[in-house]
């Protein structure tokens, strides 16, 4: 499905994690996101709960969009734009979660940190491969 040759041929920053790290990290992050969402789901209805659902849904869509943009379309600049929008939506989600449950918001923080790192990596890919695009 994804073009591994595209990724393999990119110049990568030294801080690029091994593929197993990506798989392990995402498994843990999806688990934390699910638990966080479940905590919010069982809270009473409120304005911030509604906003939480909207931002959580938006970040899921953007999360699912990033990989095809990067690996299938091979558009690392557009992938960075998606990653930045994803990060902003997660910040908004964490803010809304915090209005409802400190624990739910806290469980999203590792995801947010990972997204800042992912944006940095994506920017490095652009910088290190500007001659290819």
Explain what this protein looks like in three dimensions:
With 133 residues, the protein is mostly helical. It has one domain (19-132). It is built from five helices and no strands. It has helices spanning 4-8, 19-41, 47-72, 76-100, 102-128. Helix 3 (47-72) packs antiparallel against helix 4 (76-100). The chain is elongated, with a radius of gyration of 16 Å. The model has no long low-confidence stretch (mean pLDDT 95).
Largest sheet: none
Low-confidence stretches: none
Compute the CA-based radius of gyration. Answer: 16 Å
- Residue-averaged pLDDT: 95
Per DSSP, what share of the residues sits in E-state strands of 2 or more residues? Answer: under 5%
Q: Percent range for helical residues?
A: over 70%
Number of domains: 1
Summing up helix and strand content along with how strands pair, one would put the structural category as mainly alpha
Shape: elongated
Per DSSP E runs of 2 or more residues, the count of β-strands stands at 0
In DSSP terms, counting alpha (H) and pi (I) runs of 4 or more, how many helices? 5
């Amino acid at each position: 499905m994804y073009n591994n040759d595209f990724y393999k041929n990119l110049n990568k920053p030294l801080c690029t994690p091994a593929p197993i790290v990506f798989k392990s990290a995402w498994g843990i992050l999806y688990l934390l996101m699910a638990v966080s969402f479940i905590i919010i789901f069982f809270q009473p209805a409120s304005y911030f709960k509604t906003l939480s659902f909207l931002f959580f849904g938006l970040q899921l869509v953007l999360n699912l969009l990033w990989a095809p943009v990067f690996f299938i379309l091979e558009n690392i600049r557009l992938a960075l734009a998606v990653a930045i929008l994803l990060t902003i939506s997660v910040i908004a989600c964490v803010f809304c979660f915090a209005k409802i449950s400190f624990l739910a918001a806290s469980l999203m923080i590792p995801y947010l940190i990972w997204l800042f790192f992912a944006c940095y990596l994506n920017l490095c890919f652009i910088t290190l491969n500007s001659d290819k695009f």
